[in-house]
Each structure stands twice: as structure tokens, then as C-alpha cells.
Fold this protein.
Amino acid sequence: MGTTLDRIKQFIHDRRGALLATTAAALPVVVGFAGLGVEVGMWYSDKRDLQTAADAAALSGAFERVRGNPSKLQSAATNEATRNGFLVGGDNTIAVNNPPLSGSRAADTKAVEVVLTRPHGLLFAKLFLANDVTIAARSTAAVSTTGEACVLALDRTANRALQNTGSSTVQMQGCVMASNSVAADAIYLSGSTTVNAYSLWTTGGIDNSGGSAAVTLARPATTHAWDLEDPLAGFDPGPVPPCNPSNDPSKVPKSGLIPNGMWCGGMTIGSSANVKMKGTYWIADGDFTINAGATIGCDCPNETDGVTIILTKKTVSYAHIKINGNADVQLRAPKDPNDPFRGVLIYQDRGAPTSTNTWANKLNGGPTMKLEGSLYFPKQGVEFTGNNSNAHTCTQIIARVVAFTGNAYIDNSACKAAGVEPVTVTQARLVE
């Protein structure tokens, strides 16, 4: 009897096997939490991937905004999201908003917002959640102005569309030199040329194969970018006026004020001339030539007064401009906000054909030359040397192709006051 009671007491107080039972009871909970941790980690990993796709999509949309293609925002953003592993369709959604619908850039037309959503089925999380988890990522990219170009070559395919040759020195601190050409040598630097600029920008490439050009830039050059917009693409000088018999090319004054208006047959200013100009001059069926040694100024007593020279055609041929070396030419465009030619100093009719003589227009006045305003040759080339560096002014050169063959100083610090439409350099960046 005592033996039986002893055995019962031993059984009651026996703790052997208790750990195994406890472990068996706790193991499913431990495995569940470990699985849940792995599953949550998968959500975070997918969130990172989704954010990468959203960032890329927002930037792609903003780049189309930079290029002036708002109708392509949706497709560009969707294609970039897909390229980064986000498959659109079903419960996977993409929203592209321009302007954004939320955040600090809401209602900003220069910003593009992309929101990606993707559901996740539950594994171990079913123990705690009733519905699937939706992972979302949002990104906003915006267009910002990073500079202004003082020189823009418009031709989209020309080799050496913007070139600095020989021993030229081009000073244009604060300005971008730009070319819309896709050629590998869209910007060409040769010889012992020296360039000091804010930056270089081109749709193609930059050729400094000689290696001797000295280039100093405040901001690294940008290649294989997008075209910069021509701010004067929509400029219309109006109908060409009739010829004025009083403005006889054979009787151009050698002193005093040259009458403005229409000059059929061109205009040549002799080497001994000391004249002034004011208002709008239409030059047709002959070139506008300024010989070496001539002195030309602006009869501009008022701050808003200025000169506009329109090179066009009446019946025979389109006019060109030729300023020969050592001519002292100091002219500025009108600044009056009510003047239809505000900010435009020289305008060559966009109907002018692409010339077989690439450098049919030559502005080679030398160090005393001072041309303030837009110099516009959309279908032809211009060769430039000179410009006075004694004062802050505004010189903007927009042409099919541009060549600097000697020392030149270009400044855009006074362009806003001069009414010159800027050639803006814009880029896209993530902001949210």
C-alpha cells in the first residue's frame, strides 16, 4: 500500500517532459511571428521597388513637360514604370497627375505626380489581418530653370553647329552656349580657343578632340539632352512694307541720322561714315553692309528708344548683314513694352533659304562693337567677333549655326530690362 502511494506521489511531482510539451505548444506561435516578420520584410522590399518605379515615372513625365509635350506625360510615365518592373493592369494602378493633386506642389503646372499601387495577398499575416495589404508609392518631379543660353544654334543635324575656332576667346560668364544639333560634334572647339561660360548644352555631343581648347565652366556641360526652345519662333514682324523711293541705296548719308523705314536694294555704310540710327529699318533685295572704319550709334535720347533691323526680301533676294572688322557699331534694341519689336535688334526673315555660304552673315566689328538685343537668323548662319565688355548689357545670338572666329564678349545680365525673351535651360528633378 505504501509502495503504491509513493508511486502516485512521484508521478504527481514528476516534471520530466514538461519542456517538450511547452515547446510543442509555443512552436506554432514562434514560427508564425517569424513568418510574419519575413512577410513584413517582403512588403518593405516591394515598397522600395515601387518607390524606384514611381520616381522614374515622375521624372519621365517631367522630362516630357520640359520638352513641351504635355499630351505624352501619361504614356511616358507608364512606360518608365513598366521598364522598372511595375506591370500596369488589374489591381495594379498608376495615376499620373499634372499638376499634382496633393503635396507641396499641388496645382503647380510644372510638376508631375505619380502614384503607384499594388496589392499583396496575405500569408502568415492572415492570422492578424482580414484583408489583403495594398502597397503604394508616390513621387513628384518638377521642372526648374537652371540657366539661360546667350547663344543657341538651331540646326538639328548640322556638324559643328556651334563652333569656336582658331585662337578665339569667348567670354560669357553667366551664360550657357547651346546647340540643338544631334551631331557628335554639335559643339566644336578647336585650335587654341578659350571659352569661359556658365555651361555648355547640346542635344548631341561636344568635340574637343584637339584637346588644346581651354574651357572654364561654372556648371558641367550637358550632352545628349533635349532641344532648347526658340523664344522667337512665334515672332512675326508683319508684312513687308512697299519700297520707299526716298531711301535710295546710292544715297546713304555719311553723317547724321539715317532715315528709317524700307530700304530696297540694300544699304552700305562707308568706312568714313559717322551716322546714327533710330527706329525700324527694313532691308530687302540687297545686303546691309557696314565697312571697316565706320562709326554707327543709336539716336536714343530716351531709355526705351532703340533700333530694329529686319533683313527680308521684296522681289529679288533676302538680305544679309556684314559688319566688317574695326567698324565701331553700338546699337541697341528698343525697350518700350509697347514696341512690337521690343528686344529684337537684328531679325532675318525666316523665309530666307539655307545659304550655300554658311557664314553669309558676319558680325565682325571687333572690340568696340556693342550690339544689345536679340540677333536672330533662324535659317542661316552667323559669324561673330567682337562686342564691348565695358558694361553689363544683353546680347543674344540665335541662328541656324554660329561660329566664333575671334575674341567675343557676351553678356545677358541686362536682358530682362531689355525685354529680350530668354532661352531657358530647364531640367527635371525629384521634389517629393
Remarks:
- The radius of gyration is 35 Å.
- The mean pLDDT is 86.
- DSSP finds four helices and 24 strands in the chain.
